[in-house]
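Go through this fold for my students:
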Amino acid sequence: MKKIVVAVLAVLLFAPSAFAVGESGWGLGVKLGYAENDPKTMKDLNGAGTSLDENGAYFSIEGQYEWALQDANKLGLRFGLDSYGENEIKGGGVKWTEETMAFPVTVYYKWDGGVKGWSFFGGAGLTYIYTNADISGWAGRDDEHKSKVFPHIAAGAEYRFTELFALGLDARYNIGAKVKKDGAVLSDRSGFGAALVGRFYF
């Protein structure tokens, strides 16, 4: 899977001039969404005297570049920064806070409806995720951090109000996003997520 995505990225970066016509360009998206979230180890440790706050919300900033194709549709590359809401267990003199950031890269095809029209896209890519666990008061456990890379698939739709601005809904499915270290699940953002997105075109 990783080799396929890398090959597609290489084609996008070095060969678009061979088939691109019309208007290509940059864009910037701002997202607010909610995604599946399963802090399993926190759930297992949660008991009498502690409370667990789970947060599946996330905020994202995403850049993109789109190449216009012969049929007036687009081939694109998106690269983002996702900041997930914290999961936290605390009480009885102990505290465990999970902080997770992700960096998704997506290659996609876009059926472009133009200004005053709907556009739809579908694609796939890889995400680099980094989780930091800030742990205090827990015997035998210190602060932990770990990262991994996993694949995702993505789809969405947007309405282009003007040349500059579009509003839409993006969906993504993370495959195998569980981050584990020494038997503990530091975070698990596997599964489905959706976000409202405002996108600016330049």
